[in-house]
Write a structure and sequence with these properties.
Number of helices: 23
Number of strands: 12
Structural class: alpha/beta
Strand order of the largest sheet: 7-6-5-8-11-12
Length: 569
């Protein structure tokens, strides 16, 4: 076994890197195909979720395998190898098995103990089987991971520690209140109709919202989900489907909006959300104050001429928003545009839109920031997200009129909405920060013991399976020897009747079986122990077995096992 996994997750990379590295379904297929086309890999599978991207492979060379898999992840994710490498982790052989089993049990999830990962592992295996990139090793590994995950959830209380990202996100939106009390009779908008969006809709129905509107680019899927929600016996929620272009209107009616689509650009811009808040309150949506100074109302992007950021061009890039980039830089959109004007025009003191004036030295200091932002935008097409500025003292905010939950990777909702008064916003980055302080259940230790036991059992089974083709080839050779000797006996004793010939044949076979039984049983036991891989080589040497015969037996067993696994998946 030479199992290798190379990947990145919420534990190793910031959300901004994860969302840029996210793989579409087509990209995953191409990644698997290219993985098998490389020299070190003979099997491959991709586990891609909202907070992890992992490439599993059976390789014959460790260092070459790490280099090749890392390069392939960079090529297909669109993130440069130099930028991606610091965030990658590598696990090999037993450590790789331990990692996947831990993932299957929810120990490596953003929300410890969540069970959604089991479905995602099953989907990863099904894709690899459909593309014929999963051989015996990965079939056995992923099938066993599913069994280990189910065992952990059935034998321990890990479910008490874990919950879905949807539930955890709603808890963050409820801000300390019971989710059921907070959500009761609210109107919800769910954008998307995939597995995560469907889970979000079902969870919202279960916690007591009064109405759910489903918006999706494929109307049939949205209508089907609405029918399922309406027809459920355990809730009395009203559900209906709408086209995607109805989202701005529906947002003005919604109290809660959850978005999880496969879109590569923003689904909800800050301007759209601001318009929805204004539609609900009747007053323009204002921004919170930041360390950069008081914030004004939302300003149209690209209002300044000759801006070095070329706002009109850059804003069209995937995922770019002037408000979003202003938010992560700690300033409002108007200030960002004004800084751009300072850089371009070289003015020492300029009139801000809020009537204040800024000294030359402040403008020059800010010019460096804007120049850096402009250079980055010109290179990668957008300004990478930075950590939000530290919170500053501010006036009490009014109660939120709109709660937004973004579970998409890359993000669906503009990061700038977190600064809009009247909006409570939770995304994957927020959940990662909140989950870091979440208490661990006592059952986690029990799950860890289960994982350790299962890793040892899987390793023993794989090592024992490794010697099986050699044992089969040995018994086949012994059967040939018996057949040849019986044929020779027939030539020397042609007068033997059938009964006599049968008794002699049976006796010879029993002798051979008894001689081989103890050694073959014992060699399987020894091979299952750590360091037992050399027993197969010793057996082949002692009995002068043809390596090609052993390989042929191994291929036949792999084909049979793969067919069975495809039927079970």
């Amino acid at each position: 076994m030479s199992l290798l996994v190379v990947g990145l997750s919420h534990r190793s990379a910031p959300v901004s890197v994860l969302e840029r590295a996210a793989l579409s379904a087509d990209a995953q297929v191409k990644l698997l195909q290219d993985t098998l086309a490389t020299e070190p890999a003979t099997e491959g599978a991709v586990l891609a979720t909202c907070n992890r991207i992992e490439l599993y492979a059976d390789v014959d060379k460790f260092h070459a395998g790490v280099a090749e898999l890392s390069t392939l992840l960079a090529q297909h994710s669109g993130v440069g190898l130099e930028e991606l490498t610091p965030h990658l982790y590598v696990h090999y052989e037993d450590r790789a098995v331990h990692h996947l089993f831990s993932v299957a049990c929810g120990l490596d999830s953003m929300v410890v103990g969540e069970g959604q990962i089991l479905g995602q592992i099953k989907d990863a295996l099904a894709t690899a089987q459909e593309l014929h990139t999963a051989g015996r090793l990965l079939n056995d590994l992923f099938q066993q991971a599913l069994r280990v995950g189910k065992r952990a959830h059935s034998e321990t209380g890990i479910d008490r520690a874990g919950q879905s990202l949807v539930t955890f996100g709603l808890e963050q939106l409820a801000a300390g209140r019971a989710v059921e009390a907070w959500a009761k009779d609210k109107k919800a908008l769910v954008i998307g109709a995939g597995s995560m969006s469907s889970l979000a809709a079902a969870t919202l129905a279960r916690v007591g919202v009064g109405e759910i509107v489903i918006a999706n680019r494929t109307p049939d899927r949205a209508e089907r989900l609405a029918e399922i929600l309406t027809g459920g016996d355990d809730t009395d929620v009203l559900a209906r489907a709408v086209p995607m272009d109805s989202v701005p209107v529906e947002l003005t009616r919604a109290d809660i909006a959850v978005s999880c689509t496969g879109a590569t650009g923003l689904v909800l811009t800050a301007e759209t959300v601001a318009a929805a808040v204004e539609g609900r309150t009747g007053t323009p949506a204002a921004l919170r104050e930041t360390a950069a100074g008081p914030a004004g109302h939302l300003a149209p992007a690209g209002a300044e001429d000759a801006c070095p950021l070329d706002l009109s061009a850059v804003q069209g890039a995937t995922g770019f928003s002037v408000m979003g980039e202003a938010a992560v830089a700690g300033m409002d959109a108007a200030t960002l545009e004004q800084h751009a004007a300072w850089v371009d025009k070289g003015t020492g003191t300029v009139e801000r839109r809020d009537g204040r004036r800024t000294p030359v030295e402040d403008a020059e200091a800010d010019a460096g920031l804007i120049a850096a932002l402009a250079a980055t935008a010109a290179t990668v097409g957008r300004i990478p997200e930075r950590r939000r500025p530290e919170p500053v003292a501010e006036a009490p905010r009014p109660a939120p009129v709109l709660a937004l939950l973004d579970l998409a990777m890359p993000r669906d909702i503009d990061a700038a909405v977190h600064r809009l008064l009247g909006v409570r916003f939770v995304d994957l980055e927020t959940l990662a920060e909140a989950s870091a302080d979440a208490p661990m259940a006592a059952d986690v230790d029990q799950v860890r013991r289960i994982v350790s036991d299962e890793v040892a059992a899987f390793g023993a089974a794989q090592r024992a399976a490794h010697i099986t083709p050699t044992v089969v080839a040995l018994r086949a050779m012994a059967a040939d020897v018996v057949a040849n000797e019986i044929a020779r006996l027939d030539g020397r004793l042609p007068d033997l009747d059938d009964k006599q010939r049968g008794e002699i044949t049976q006796t010879v076979r029993r002798v051979v079986d008894k001689l081989l039984h103890a050694p073959t049983v014992r060699v399987k036991q020894l091979a299952a122990e750590p360091g037992g891989a050399g027993y197969a080589d010793a057996l082949r040497t002692l009995f002068d077995l043809d390596p090609e015969t052993v390989a042929a037996v191994s291929r036949a067993e792999n084909n049979t096992e793969n067919a069975k696994n495809r039927g079970r998946a």
